[in-house]
């Protein structure tokens, strides 16, 4: 087997439960970020939530995509038909369904903040230029296709070098003026690191304890402070190293929490990130619209320091409940699962 091809042994593809915990941490941070996005501009939350959420910018999506890469080792080595059936179909289907659903929702319900999700132009262009939070699904599908093409054909160090340079340029301030295109270029390197180095990453995390996790947090915090004092060139050069420190902290935290009572809730959440990811924005939007008329009341004002956290907890819980309810109704189940006629390949190819 070429040295740049990930292993497909049972160990390399076996489920590691704390990885689900890491996904749980990532989705909590994503929901918290979006909760701040809704509540700070509308006056429902304290302004300091905005810079606080920015601190985790190099942890949220890098952790999400690196873990996705770790979980894609076996998938990208399946035949194309099997890759479509087991991974790509659901991403494409859910992306399209929820793009249309969000558009329809905001045709009826006014946007509490300027999300620009009621534009017909953006709806039409979403198949090539997503302009909302669903871009993660779009990017992940592209990453799986790219990995399928590259793995075993192009040297991994060349792939990582090109991806790292491109990512650094975007982190340095160059932009496509589109959240999806910028995100794709920024985070592809993290996905491929997770894909290529799954086993070394697991070995590294298994050797760390709480003291090492705390140390990584300190290094990450110090790096964020230093990046805040520098310009775009340093931002570009340090984004990936700092992001990897942040991801190492997230993974080690998930591993450490696996020994606590929090393990099961985090792992349960981590196995349902798709459901939460696509649902929570509409929940947050609805909660924001409901609370806005009461923004100046004493009760809501007293909750401003913790409002994003409270709304995140409610949004996650409601998203899980909505998804669980939808799973019981055949028609609604299609909100989260691709139908057989869409996901079934022309030829049934056994997984390997």
Automatic annotation (TrEMBL):
UniProt-listed InterPro entries: Acyl_transf_3_dom
Keywords: Acyltransferase, Cell membrane, Membrane, Transferase, Transmembrane, Transmembrane helix
Transmembrane segments: 21-40, 52-76, 88-108, 133-150, 157-174, 180-198, 210-230, 236-254, 274-294, 306-327
GO molecular function, one term: acyltransferase activity
Topology in membrane: Multi-pass membrane protein
Pfam family for this entry, one: Acyl_transf_3
Subcellular location: Cell membrane
All residue ranges annotated as the Acyltransferase domain in the record: 17-323
Entry similarity comment: Belongs to the acyltransferase 3 family.
Name of the molecule in the record: Acyltransferase family protein
Annotated source species: Microbacterium pullorum
């Amino acid at each position: 087997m070429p040295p740049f091809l990930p292993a497909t042994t049972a160990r390399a593809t076996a489920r590691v439960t704390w990885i689900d915990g890491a996904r749980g941490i990532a989705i909590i941070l994503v929901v918290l970020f979006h909760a701040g996005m809704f509540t700070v501009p509308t006056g429902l939350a304290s302004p300091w939530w905005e810079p606080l959420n920015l601190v985790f910018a190099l942890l949220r999506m890098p952790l999400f995509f690196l873990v996705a890469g770790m979980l894609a080792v076996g998938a990208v080595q399946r035949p194309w038909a099997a890759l479509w059936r087991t991974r790509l179909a659901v991403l494409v289907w859910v992306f399209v369904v929820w793009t249309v659903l969000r558009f329809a929702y905001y045709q009826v319900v006014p946007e509490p903040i300027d999300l620009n999700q009621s534009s017909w132009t953006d709806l039409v262009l979403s198949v090539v230029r997503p302009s909302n939070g669903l871009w993660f699904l779009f990017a992940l599908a592209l990453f799986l296709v790219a990995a399928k093409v590259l793995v075993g054909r192009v040297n991994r160090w060349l792939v990582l070098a090109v991806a790292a340079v491109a990512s650094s340029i975007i982190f340095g301030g160059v932009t496509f003026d589109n959240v999806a295109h910028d995100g794709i270029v920024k985070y592809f390197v993290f996905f491929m690191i997770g894909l290529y180095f799954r086993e070394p990453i697991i070995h590294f995390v298994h050797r760390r304890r709480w003291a090492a996790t705390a140390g990584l947090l300190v290094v990450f915090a110090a790096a964020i402070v230093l990046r805040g004092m520098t310009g775009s060139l340093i931002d570009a050069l340090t984004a990936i190293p700092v992001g990897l420190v942040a991801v190492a902290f997230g993974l080690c935290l998930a591993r450490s929490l696996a020994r606590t009572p929090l393990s099961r809730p985090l792992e349960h959440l981590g196995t349902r990130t798709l459901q939460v990811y696509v649902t929570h924005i509409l929940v947050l939007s609805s909660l924001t619209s409901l609370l806005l008329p009461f923004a100046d009341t004493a009760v809501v004002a007293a909750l401003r320091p913790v409002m994003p956290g409270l709304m995140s907890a409610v949004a996650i819980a409601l998203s899980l409940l909505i998804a669980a309810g939808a799973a019981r109704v055949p028609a609604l189940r299609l909100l989260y699962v691709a139908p057989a006629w869409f996901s079934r390949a022309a030829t049934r190819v056994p997984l390997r």
